[in-house]
Amino acid sequence: MTTQTAPQPGIQSLTSGLLSHARGLVSHEKEIEHATASRFNLFHIFGVGHYEVSTHSVLLANLLNPWGSHGQGAIFLKRFIQSEAILKAPGFPTDFHADSAVVQCEVSIGSRTKTTGGRLDILITDRNNRKIAVENKIHAAEQENWVERYLNFLKDDGCLIYLTKFGEEPAQAESEELRSKVHCISYAGTIKGWLEVCRKEAATVPIVRESLTQYIYLINDLTHQNRDTRMNEKLVESVLSHPDTFDAYCALRDANKPIKGQIVRELGERIKPKLPNGFDLVASPMGSCEKYDGFKFSTNALTLCNVHAVVSFDSPDYANCYYGFELIDPSVPFGVRAGDTEVLASCFKTVFELDPFSSGRWPAWRHWRIQNWGDEVLRQIRFDGTRFDEEFGELINRLLEVATSIGMEIAIVPSPTNQGL
What we know:
The protein has 421 residues and is an alpha+beta fold. It is built from 16 helices and 11 strands. The protein is 46% helix and 16% strand. The strands form 2 sheets. It has a 6-stranded antiparallel beta sheet. Strands 1-2-3-4-5 form a 5-stranded mixed beta sheet, sandwiched between helices.
């Protein structure tokens, strides 16, 4: 007698089952979030969570400062320099006197040359002139020769720490010898662990304790640790329970970029018919999730000035969203006469009330408030489009306002009517 094996469910049925299981887990976690308010975060509300200098360096320096506004003396600094990750730093001064330490942000160490000078993100100096220098990088690119310049400043009086989201090594260390003198730590591990220790130290000081909790939540988000461990454990258990469920997981994982791309591509299709007359969408996201897969807009004046207005991304997976103006032909400068770049900067500042950055083929740009289009942003775009479209439309209208001002200031051609989205 032949034994027949029961037919296995198809991949579509298995993926549907996994999605259903995950939906139940997410629903449960939302109940927990509602009870704990873990998603309420002032850094996100004010849109400052990604700023290295004005948010992270300033906050870390205040916590490390024995005279910081937290009022806890040198205890946070002591816990920092006592952590195993810091003690391993090459050149770390083991007899560092925390109680006498002075903590500074954005410290000038002289005019920048190839081997000297620059600005240190955080510098901690004790009464014996021993130093702990921290180079803090979250999104910004490394400066040229920074490792050699900072080590030359420190000499034999301290250590150089490189702080990134995940503990990456410096790309600007020209030799293995230089690289070996830099100690790499991460927000995901070292800083988060230290903050959790600080929170315990501040258990009886509610304002400090809860502020640390908010900052830990921000770091969880920046380093993609914002999903609850319990939910992940249950999903892992489900995925690994059978080869077929593992195959179903792989199918869902492989759909990650197509799903993101489809959402952003649909956004382009949705806004195109709402654009003001004369403000043309000349390029829309292809859905590739690649760097610079963004939106480009044009007017007659912008074309003659050799720029497009853009809302784009300088990292893959729709991260680091920026807005501004990009040269159409990078070999040709902006405008039609000397001084037009200053006109662009002035028009940009008038509309956005911010001084623009200028770099390479982007004569004027800034990062947008909604900088990283992660899961929550994509969810809003897809399922609560009206709210997102309103803010995105306001950004587009302001870019058009700059374009209109450029046309009027440079007096090339009549500018389009700003009808608004």
